[in-house]
Q: What sequence folds into this?
């Protein structure tokens, strides 16, 4: 994993954690869908505009990191998956 991938994973996980904690009454599945869409938008629109290469690994890792962060905050705040 390169430095750019690690940074995007941390940013997406942090943003997902803050979002889940802030919007606890918003359905978890919709938060996950929105973060997967954000990861796709970043990977397939923003990176080509910045003349960076597209990476399927980066896309998968950022999506999974956001999803796991949302689940983690849900378990901590609600005590259930």
A:
């Amino acid at each position: 994993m390169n430095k750019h991938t690690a940074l995007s994973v941390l940013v997406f996980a942090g943003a997902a954690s803050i979002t889940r904690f802030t919007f606890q009454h918003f359905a978890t599945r919709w938060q996950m869908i929105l973060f997967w869409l954000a990861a796709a938008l970043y990977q397939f629109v923003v990176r080509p505009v910045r003349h960076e290469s597209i990476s399927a690994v980066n896309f998968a890792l950022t999506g999974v990191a956001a999803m796991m962060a949302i689940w983690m905050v849900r378990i901590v705040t609600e005590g259930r998956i």
Summary: The first helix runs from residue 3 to 22. The chain has a mean pLDDT of 90.
